[in-house]
UniProtKB/TrEMBL annotation:
Lineage: Eukaryota, Fungi, Dikarya, Basidiomycota, Agaricomycotina
Residue ranges constituting the DNA/pantothenate metabolism flavoprotein C-terminal domain according to the UniProt record: 176-274
Coiled coil feature spans: none
Molecular functions per Gene Ontology: catalytic activity
Species annotation: Hypholoma sublateritium (strain FD-334 SS-4)
UniProt name for this protein: DNA/pantothenate metabolism flavoprotein C-terminal domain-containing protein
Origin superkingdom: Eukaryota
């Protein structure tokens, strides 16, 4: 079936695509969380994490997915919490989460950490204990996890489809607008560029009898523009740009900054993302002392140039099984916290 592609603006998207069922309940909880954090004087970061799906049928059997395990988001959330931020962790259902990520089912199954001790008396229930070699690591993660829960600084939300993601992002960012400069957005989720509007979806499972399958998808509206201009003016916005062609990384990151006018794009190459990223931002036009005027050319040049900051870590080629491995997210978050703090202090 061939239908004309529709060009969706953010406005026409939300006017025509259905909102997720639990949106209002989710928003109410986010509002309570933001109010509490604002009262306690904390900065709040929205971390988005994991890939979005694009269902092909209304009774969904098949869907398109975006690559992301959720490592970047879950790991960064932990470092933001450590730095004193409150975190709204908006992630793809079943992708990695802060703290529990250390014991994910495939890489570090937690059942392998537990021992069954012999019962103390006949008929008694056997005790379960943690394997001695794993205790120190578990204690560290568990302590941080319990502290965060006691302070109430982590709030978790889930999405599955790109539609859930867009509705939630808009609603959460509007709630965060009250935080003004204390709100940070760390958009690490891998978001589909294409989607199938509900009006064009087949109700039932697409049948295979007709031979080839061709589907024409529409473009997901560029959501960063209204996020920057309308939903949360004043927030510090960091988006990620993922490429597989290293040569496209800088041009695409610069293009995003130019188009949306937000604070930072972090560019990462799919295969190098665990040890190398680049921060791209617009160069600030320097404020000159009173009485001194900058030439037109110099102002123009400064406004058109980008600052690029490469962040790299050395990863061991053959890491030892139990040796701690440096995580690049620690340095990414440290750099962002520094920039955000400076930005809060220096902007009127
Ligand atoms: C990223 O680039 C993330 O860093 C990764 C993290 C998805 C690579 P993992 O979860 O991977 O640790 O396995 N996220 C943003 C990807 C994205 O969809 N960006 C859009 C784009 O590139 C703009 S928002 O066009």
């Amino acid at each position: 079936m061939h239908t004309e592609p529709t060009t969706f603006s953010a406005e026409s998207y939300f006017a025509t695509q259905p909102s997720p069922q639990h949106l209002q309940q989710d928003v109410d909880k986010v509002r309570d969380f933001v109010t509490k954090q604002a009262k306690e004087g904390r900065s709040v970061v929205l971390v988005t994490s994991g890939g979005t799906t694009v269902p092909l049928e209304l009774n969904v059997v098949r869907f398109l997915d975006n690559f992301s395990a959720g490592t970047r988001g879950a790991t960064s959330a932990e470092y933001f919490l450590k730095a004193g931020y409150a975190v709204i962790f908006m992630h793809r259902q079943f992708s990695l989460q802060p703290f529990s990520r250390h014991y994910s089912h495939s890489t570090n199954p937690f059942l392998d950490f537990l021992d069954i001790d012999p019962p103390e008396a006949a008929g008694a229930i056997p005790r379960i204990s943690v394997t001695p070699s794993k205790r120190a690591d578990l204690l560290e993660v568990l302590t941080a996890y319990k502290e965060v829960h006691a302070r109430g600084t982590l709030h978790t939300l889930t999405f599955v489809t790109v539609n859930d993601y867009l509705w939630l992002l808009r609603a959460v960012s509007k709630e965060m607008a009250v935080l003004k400069r204390r709100a940070m957005f760390y958009l690490a989720a891998a978001v589909s560029d294409f989607f199938l509007p509900t009006q064009k979806m087949s109700e039932h499972k697409i049948q295979s009898g007709k031979g080839n399958l061709s589907i024409e998808m529409d473009q997901v509206p560029k959501i960063l523009k209204p996020l920057v201009d309308e939903w949360t003016p004043g927030g510090y916005i960091v988006s990620f740009k993922l490429e597989t062609d290293q040569d496209l990384l800088l041009p695409k990151a610069r293009q995003a900054i130019e188009r949306y006018g937000h604070q930072v794009v972090i560019g990462n190459d799919l295969h190098r993302r665990k040890f190398e990223v680049v921060f791209v931002s617009k160069k600030l036009v320097p404020t000159l002392p009173p009485g001194i005027e900058q030439t037109k050319e110099a102002t123009q040049q400064a406004a058109n140039s980008f600052s690029e900051y490469w962040l790299r870590i050395n990863l061991p080629e053959h890491p030892l099984p139990d040796a701690p491995v440096k995580e690049i997210e620690e340095d990414i978050v440290q750099e962002l916290v520094r920039r955000h703090t400076e930005w809060i202090e220096n902007t009127p």
